[in-house]
Design a protein that fits this description.
Alpha-Beta Plaits, MutS, DNA mismatch repair protein, domain I, alpha+beta, 4 domains, 4-stranded antiparallel β-sheet
C-alpha cells in the first residue's frame, strides 16, 4: 500500500529584529549591534546581529553583560511596528506556497508542503530565495517528516554556521533518518527540554538524545516521571502533530515559480489545471467554498498582475475554478512573452452550504466524484488516481 510521507518545513527568520533594522538603516549591516536595551546597560538583548554573536552575545542576555563582552556594541531601541509589518509580509509569502501555515512566533512558522510535488530541499530553497527577493530578509529552514525534527533541524543548521553573517541554512532530515540525526545531539537540543529537565537528566548520566533512546522506560520514569514516554518518543523523532492552520484564513491559494519561463499556453494550462485541483481539494478538506477566483501572473521582468472574477455563488469545484481561471488567462496571454510565475486563489470564503436547487444534476455528480477521488487520495496517497490528467503530463 502506498504510504504518504509528510513534508514539513520550519522557517525561521535569521536575527529577525536586527535584519529588519539593517533594512531600515543599512549602515548597521556587518556591525555588532543589539536591540532591546540601552547603551547604559539597562534591559535585555531581544536580538543581536551575527557580528555581535561572535563576541558571545545572545538573545535574553542582560545588556550590561553584552556590553562587557563587546564594549563597542551599538544598541538600537527597536521598532515593533516595523517588525510586525515585515512579519506579515513573510507570512503572506509562506501562504502563497501552501495554506497549511502555522505561525509559532513573529519570526517563525511551520509549513506542511506534502501536497507539493518538489522535494523538500527544492521547496525550501525556493521559499528562501523568494523571502530574500521580496523582503530582503534572510531565513533558515529545517525540513523533515514532522514538526519536532524540522524545528530541531533548523536549530542545528543555524548552529553549524560560525561566520559573522546570517546563516541562511537549509538542513534536510530525510524520512527514516530522524533517530540517527537526533542521537548525537545534547539533550538540551531537544525541543521541549528546558534547563531544569536537562539538569536532572545530566545528573543521571543522560547527556545525549541517544542516551534517552537507549534507556529503559521504567528507569527513565523514575528520573522524570510521566514525561518519560513523551521524551522517549521525541528522542526517536516521533511526532504526529499536524500543522495547525488559522481558522480565520481569508483565502486559499497555490502558485508555482518556474526557473525556466513558460512559453507555451498549453504548458500554462497544464499548470493551472493542477493548481486548480489543489486549491479545490483544500477548500473541500476544510469544508469551505469561495466566491472570488483569482489569477496571478508574474512576467519575466518581475512585473506581477492579478485578475479576479467574483461569482454569484460560493464554490469549491475544480472545474469551476479551472474554467474561470482559463477565461482570465485568455485575456492576459501574451504570446512569446513567457511566464515566470502562475498562481490560483479563491477568496471570500464561507462554510460549505450548498443550496441544491441552484445546481443541476451534472454539477451534483461532479461534486460526488470529487469527494470520492479526495477520499481515495486521502486513504491511499495522492498518486493513486488523477483527475483527467496523467502523471506523465503533469509538469507542475
Amino acid at each position: 500500500m502506498y504510504k504518504s510521507i509528510r513534508k514539513i518545513l520550519h522557517v525561521d527568520l535569521d536575527a529577525f529584529f536586527c535584519s529588519v533594522e539593517e533594512l531600515l538603516d543599512p549602515s548597521l549591516k556587518g556591525t555588532a549591534f543589539a536591540t532591546g536595551g540601552t547603551s547604559d546597560g539597562r534591559g535585555v538583548v531581544t536580538s543581536c546581529s551575527y557580528a555581535a554573536r561572535v563576541f558571545g552575545i545572545r538573545s535574553a542576555m542582560p545588556m550590561h553583560k553584552a556590553l562587557l563582552l563587546c564594549p563597542n556594541l551599538e544598541t538600537v531601541r527597536g521598532q515593533i511596528k516595523e517588525y510586525s509589518k515585515h512579519s506579515r509580509q513573510v507570512m503572506s509569502i509562506l501562504n502563497s506556497f501552501t495554506p497549511l501555515v502555522e505561525p509559532i512566533s513573529i519570526d517563525e512558522a511551520f509549513l506542511d508542503v506534502s501536497d507539493l510535488p518538489q522535494v523538500m530541499g527544492s521547496i525550501a530553497a525556493e521559499i528562501q530565495m523568494k523571502i530574500m527577493a521580496e523582503t530582503g530578509l534572510p531565513c533558515s529552514i529545517g525540513c523533515a517528516s514532522n514538526k519536532l525534527v524540522a524545528k530541531m533541524a533548523t536549530n542545528i543548521g543555524k548552529s553549524e554556521h560560525k561566520k559573522p553573517s546570517p546563516p541562511m541554512a537549509i538542513k534536510i532530515i530525510p524520512e527514516g533518518h530522524e533517530k540517527l540525526f537526533l542521537s548525537p545531539l545534547p539533550v538540551r537540543e531537544m525541543w521541549g527540554v528546558g534547563p531544569k529537565t536537562g539538569d536532572i537528566l545530566g545528573k543521571n548520566g543522560i547527556k545525549t538524545i541517544g542516551d534517552i533512546q537507549n534507556i529503559p522506560v521504567g528507569k527513565l520514569e523514575k528520573i522524570i516521571g510521566n514525561f518519560a514516554l513523551i521524551i522517549i518518543d521525541r528522542s526517536l523523532g516521533i511526532d504526529h502533530r499536524p500543522v495547525e492552520i488559522d481558522e480565520k484564513t481569508k483565502s486559499i491559494s497555490n502558485e508555482r515559480t518556474f526557473f525556466k519561463n513558460l512559453q507555451l499556453k498549453s504548458e500554462a494550462i497544464v499548470v493551472i489545471k493542477g493548481l486548480s485541483e489543489k486549491v479545490g481539494k483544500r477548500l473541500r478538506n476544510r469544508k469551505m467554498s469561495g466566491k472570488t477566483i483569482r489569477l496571478k501572473i508574474r512576467w519575466p521582468n518581475f512585473e506581477t498582475i492579478t485578475r479576479q472574477i467574483t461569482l454569484d455563488q460560493p464554490i469549491n469545484h475544480d472545474s469551476v475554478i479551472l474554467s474561470t481561471i482559463l477565461s482570465l488567462l485568455e485575456k492576459e496571454w501574451d504570446k512569446g512573452k513567457g511566464i515566470r510565475l502562475i498562481g490560483v486563489g479563491v477568496s471570500q470564503l464561507e462554510p460549505e452550504n450548498y443550496q441544491l436547487s441552484l445546481f443541476d444534476q451534472k454539477f451534483q455528480k461532479e461534486r460526488n466524484l470529487l469527494n470520492a477521488v479526495d477520499g481515495l487520495q486521502e486513504r491511499f496517497g495522492k498518486n493513486i488516481i488523477y483527475k483527467g490528467r496523467t502523471k506523465k503530463n503533469n509538469i507542475i
